[in-house]
Amino acid sequence: MTPYHAGMDMDPNEPAAPGTIRSLNRSLVLDAIRRGGPTSRAGLARALGMAKPTVSDIVAGLVAEGVVREGPITRRGGPRPGGPGRPPVVLDIDERHAYVLGIHLGVHDTTVALADAAGGEVSRRRIPTPHLPAEEALREVGALAREVVVRAGIPRRRLAAASVCLPGQVDIDTGTCVHAPNLGWRDVPVVGLLGAALGVPVHAHNTVQATAVAEHAEGSARGARTVALVYAGTGVGAAILHDGILFRGAAGLAGELGHAVIPGLDARCSCGRHGCVETAASASSVARAARDAVRTGSPTRMAALGDGVTSLDVYAAAEAGDTLGQALLGEAGRTLGIAASWLVNIVNPDVLVLAGGLVGAGPHVIDPFRAALDGHAAAGALARLQLRTWSLGQDAKVRGAVLLALARTQPSVRVAVTGGQSSPTGRIGP
Ligand SMILES: [Zn+2]
Q: How far is the CA of 197 from the centre of ligand 1 (A)?
């Protein structure tokens, strides 16, 4: 697993990490073990420029806590190569010392994944999202998550944290879903409700942000320094990461690209305004436009489907040569490309990831997207830009939730540096 930088969503209200040099050294040791794989006390001391007794003391504490284990065989390395003299005792993260829950609460489905301290998934369950009042829906999701932990045979005390991502504006500091139009939620205390059900710290994030975190750590943007992700599914959103740090904004609401207004568009948006990007560049807007066209008698092979046309039907029609289907997808791609050009000009990313269900329409969406991006973004920003589509697909959402939960439980990850360049102390301080 790519080391993951949790600094991106550090909670400013969290008490400052205790102490000090010792806790900083502990983080550095833990992080070096995590990133470097199996290593020895002497190797750590050399790599970190610390005194051996200091390293030994910290390692003894980590071993006693069960966070780190020692032995000749490790999950990543296998047996150490032989050499002269006594082989060093090898240290590695014990992935069983803690577990986290990642929960993706989607408009249609909800997925709960239980993962170990190394991010390896132990169990996963998916159910249709309960369409109930928010409090009851979260009670059901909490019960499902508890059941996943029990069935996996993981002792409750080993469960360290949970993260939930959902399709809406989430205030990271208060753990409140401010507004999730596609769920019909407003001002829902998600973290409070799920935390009460699970009995561990819970954090809530926007699904697009979680998707970007997963694509950066394990997917198509791996290793990229500055990443912008544009998501077009039921809704539209965006997320930005730099040096592995998620740009969260004042309250975690950064990236609301779907609710930026494009002059000339006038459809009413789920957010209550008119002309938002989401009204013309989402899977739901494509399906709605197709239903409107069918209703007004436009010639199309979707006519027989009447009011039941979905975005998948539009894609199937476009594939079969239906010009209306092709035009609708093309218009969605074009609108999305214009919106993405704003992001590219402002952020100047190395990698722009196009994600979400609409990506499934392939060239019908991606070609006009690329053309609009090329036609609207600044040449300088385009010069170094690599456009990629998401590689984890729908899995990215729950994987992002797992990674965000892990980051919260492992303070050492805060000083991890992505991309292999180590300047850990550069992450701390003002
Ligand atoms: Zn809107």
A: 32
Q: Do domains 99-212+395-409 and 223-389 have the same CATH topology?
A: yes
Per residue in 311-344, pLDDT (tens digit) is 999 999 999 999 999 999 999 999 999 999 999 9
- Number of helices (H) and strands (E) in the chain: give both, helices first: 13, 15
Please tell me the distance between residue 59's alpha carbon and the centre of ligand 1 in angstroms.
Answer: 52
CA of 284 to the centre of ligand 1 (A): 13
Q: What DSSP string describes 117-129?
A: TTS-EEEEEEEEP
What pLDDT, on the 0 to 100 scale, is given for residue 11?
37
Structural domain boundaries in the chain: 6-96, 99-212+395-409, 223-389
Q: Does domain 223-389 have CATH number 3.30.450.40?
A: no
283 C-alpha to center of ligand 1: Å?
A: 14
Evaluate if pTM is beyond 0.85: no
- Using pLDDT thresholds of 50, 70 and 90, give the confidence band for residue 101: very high
Q: Is 322 helix (H, G, I), strand (E, B) or coil?
A: coil
CATH T-level assignment (fold) for domain 6-96: Arc Repressor Mutant, subunit A (1.10.10)
Distance 357 CA to ligand 1 centre (A): 19
Q: How many residues does the chain have?
A: 430
Ion ligand 1 residues within 5 Å by Cβ: 259, 269, 271, 276
Burial 82-119 (b: 16+ CB within 10 A, else e): eeeeeebebbbbbbebbbbbbbbbbbeebbbbbbbbbb
Q: What is the pLDDT of residue 30?
A: 81
Distance (Å) from CA 270 to ligand 1 centroid: 6
Tell which CATH classification among 3.30.70.790, 3.40.190.10, 3.30.420.40, 1.10.150.130 matches the domain 99-212+395-409.
3.30.420.40
Question: Cα(274) to centroid of ligand 1, in Å?
Answer: 7
